[in-house]
Amino acid sequence: MNRRSFFQSVASATALGLAEPPPARAAVAKMKITRVRVYAPANPNPLFNQSDLVVAVETDAGITGIGEGGKKDTLEQCAGRLIGQDPQHIEHLWQDMSRSFFYPPGREKMHALGALDLALWDIRGKALNQPVHALLGGMVRNFCECYNTAGTVPGIRPGMSVKERAQATIAAGYRAFRFGAADTPANTTYNTHQKLNQMYDECVQVREGVGKNGDWCIDFHQRFDLSDAIRGCDLIKDLAPFFVEDPVRTEAFQEDIPILRRTAKVPIAAGEEWGNRWDFNKLVESHDLDYVRVTLPNVGGITEMMKIAAICETHFVGIIPHFTGPISTAALVNSLGTFSGPVLMEYNYGGRTIAHMPVGLDFKEGRLYASERPGLGVEIDFKPLTQVAEFTQFITSRAQTYFRPDGSITNW
Questions:
Q1: Which of 21-25, 215-219, 229-233, 327-331 has the lowest mean pLDDT?
Q2: Pick from 7, 44, 245, 406: most CB atoms within 10 A?
Q3: 134-369 CATH
Q4: Are 233 and 189 in contact (CB under 8 A)?
Q5: Is 117 exposed, middle or buried (0-12, 13-18, 19+ CB in 10 A)?
């Protein structure tokens, strides 16, 4: 190749590179949100913080973002603030939905805001033809390890002992076996002193079931007062649980967990009922928790989750999210798959068919895998769903903020 042809080839390659930038770096074309619709599955979860309502945020570019969570009333104000807005400004829209109505959003409204935030990230991924995890910096793990809650585990049959169930769960590929502390039917008497003894006996069986090097975790489920939680953690410390979940009441976390931390010789996980980073920031900074149980969309969506992940990474605290719905589970893989700290996911859909979401959860042998499908990677079949709400008007009534000189939002 002569000198002239060499520089011509370099120039051509450079021009081609400028003409076709990588998709992930391309600018999102301007678009507007035109409508938000909300759909209910055949048997919707009645608990607001586990809502599986499907939220569809539609744009004039023909791209529809899918989220999950909230209720009609809690979604209304936040959804109304999105109409006519450009969905690419996710952080700005998050701040507006959070601050526009003067009172800080409580956990119910934060859940709804999070559902819409999932949909905004889904739009961005679809517009760029990239999975959300690629937009967040890329996966740092090959898969997300799981433990089972209510899904079907191969080999488990009715009437099996807790030891046998633990064995079957580990054999199915799950990282850990999880069970409740001396579970009894709801709305019956629960004598905590007697139940602690039963719990210890069951924990011994579970340790035998998972083997010397297997992992298991137990959910105290806020059933115990502080004194019983201290005794319970002490009883099982030599059985080496992966973690003890929600050892005391959520209302008492800020006061009681630091006390428990000074005495307990077991890892502690807590926070499935929390709303945002301010709920647990001090506990994480003080290393009073080993794992936070924050989840999507409860914390306010992916936008808030990544800020929580940064706090946890700073203080070497892991994240073990609580389950919500199937779309949110797919969103958790996209977001927490990029978190460099420890992650263990509570999985609830093994062996279950999700009629309205035929594609979205790439699960095999106790592990969840990230997909390369655009956005959150979910595909929705709207036929089994029933529309329960529609929002098309931009809300201005009593919505008010101030702006700093640079245009960023501050409180009114």
A1: 21-25
A2: 245
A3: 3.20.20.120
A4: no
A5: buried
Q: What three-state secondary structure class fits 99?
A: helix
Percent of the chain at pLDDT > 90 equals 84
Which of 67, 77, 4 lies closest to 38 in space, CA to CA?
67
Distance between CA atoms of residues 45 and 50, nearest Å = 7
Q: Please tell me the chain's helix, strand, coil percentages from 3-state DSSP, rounded to the nearest 5.
A: 40, 15, 45
Can you give the pLDDT at residue 36? 98
- What pLDDT digit, counting tens, does each position of 283-316 carry? 999 999 999 999 999 999 999 999 999 999 999 9
Using an 8 Å Cβ cutoff, are 57 and 116 in contact? yes
Tokens of 159: 């009437």
- Give the end-to-end CA distance of the chain in Å, rounded to a whole number: 67
Q: Which one is catalytic: 89, 92, 133, 221? A: 221
Check 89, 111, 287, 322 and give the catalytic one: 322
Contact 55, 48 (CB under 8 A): no
Distances, alpha carbon 182 to alpha carbons 153, 190, 192, 219, 234, in Å? 21, 9, 9, 10, 16
221 is catalytic: yes
The single-letter DSSP state of residue 407 is: S
Question: Do 250 and 273 meet the contact criterion of CB atoms below 8 Å apart?
Answer: yes
Q: How many whole angstroms separate alpha carbon 229 and alpha carbon 177? A: 21
Confidence of residue 49 (pLDDT cuts 50, 70, 90): confident
Same fold across 33-129+383-410 and 134-369: no
The DSSP element (H or E) to which 336 belongs, if any, is helix 326-336
Domain ranges of the chain: 33-129+383-410, 134-369
Look at residue 150 in the predicted model and tell me its pLDDT.
Answer: 84
> Is 92 annotated in the active site?
no
Whole-angstrom distance, CA of residue 294 vs CA of residue 28: 30
The pLDDT tens digits of the residues spanning 190-207 come to 999 899 999 999 999 999
Q: Taking Cα atoms as reference points, which of 278, 270, 254, 271 lies closest to residue 104?
A: 278
Say whether domain 33-129+383-410 belongs to CATH 3.30.390.10: yes
